[in-house]
Amino acid sequence: MPQSLSSPHADRAFARPQTGAAATVRLSGEVYGTLINLSGRRRFTSQRVVLYAVLATQGRDDALAMSREALAVFRDAHAALVDGSDKLPGLYCDELREAYFGAAGADRVIRAFIELAERVLEAIPLRARAVPALLEQLVESATPLLGVLNGVTQVYEDLARRQASTVKKQLVGVMSDIETIAKQARIVSFNAQVIAARAGDSGREFAVVSAELTQITGRLDGLVREAMRTSVA
Predict the structure, then answer these.
(1) Predicted local distance difference test score (pLDDT) of residue 24
(2) Residue 152: inside a domain, yes or no?
(3) How many whole angstroms from its chain centre is CA 112?
(4) Pair 9, 82: CB distance under 8 Å
(5) What is the DSSP string of the chain?
(6) Residue 84, Ramachandran bin (φ over 0: left; ψ between -120 and 50: alpha; else beta)
(7) How many domains does one find in the chain?
(8) Residue 8 has what pLDDT?
(9) Same structural domain for residues 214 and 159?
(10) Which of 107, 141, 164 corresponds to the end of one domain?
(11) Which residues of the chain have pLDDT under 50?
């Protein structure tokens, strides 16, 4: 089995919060979609690394290059998720820090896989004697790695659902405030209509105000209905 690696990020992740550009990333639905996509991509590319490494030992053309390419994608995705960037938040919460550097040790398992894969891909073109044993270790590591990656991806999906629920509650609160304002505007509009009717010709200005308020409240009602339909969807 592959040896464990001590991650250079482990102490940092628990010692202090994320800083720099990654700490300022707004956690939108788009960002969560990217996080889930990258995490899921690691599952797919890890299997490609192993598959094409096996095919490379069987002499299949371009298999070695394809395995290396898949490993590069896998490595870059992991680095982006852990370290963050100007578009990704990195390990911004305790759940993620626990997933990567806690008991499950996802970061350690992932980096061990990367190191082992690099050794295999370096040994294959040299036709080193260690290739069969290294390849066997790589194949054996694929299944437990997939379990770890599934667990981490589930964390991202849970966080995304929690964020969506929070946003929906906030939206419902804002819409409630708008509805209250619209009701108050309708009362003002009605009073203006009454004053305009009583004042006759001199009440034309009130009639103008009433008509404008009626249009405004109508638009507000439409916005509320549309926002609520969107939030439910």
Answers:
(1) 73
(2) yes
(3) 24
(4) yes
(5) -PPP---TTHHHHHHS---SGGGG----HHHHHHHHHHHHHHHHHHHHHHHHHHHHHTT-TTHHHHHHHHHHHHHHHHHHHHH--SS---S-SHHHHHHHHSTT-HHHHHHHHHHHHHHHHHHTTTT-TTHHHHHHHHHHHHHHHHHHHHHHHHHHHHHHHHHHHHHHHHHHHHHHHHHHHHHHHHHHHHHHHHHHHHHGGGGHHHHHHHHHHHHHHHHHHHHHHHHHHHHH-
(6) left
(7) 2
(8) 41
(9) no
(10) 164
(11) 1-17, 19-21, 232-233
Q: Is 4 a member of any domain?
A: no
- Domain hosting residue 184, numbered range: 170-232
**pLDDT at site 50:** 96
* 205 touches 191 (CB < 8 A): no
Pair (143, 73) in one structural domain: yes
Of 164, 188, 210, the position where a domain reaches its end is: 164
Q: For the segment 158-213, what is each residue's pLDDT rounded down to a tens digit?
A: 999 888 877 666 666 666 666 666 666 666 666 666 666 666 665 566 666 666 66
Nearest CA to 175 among 223, 230, 232? 223
| One domain, residues 88 and 128 | yes
Tokens of 80: 């982006």
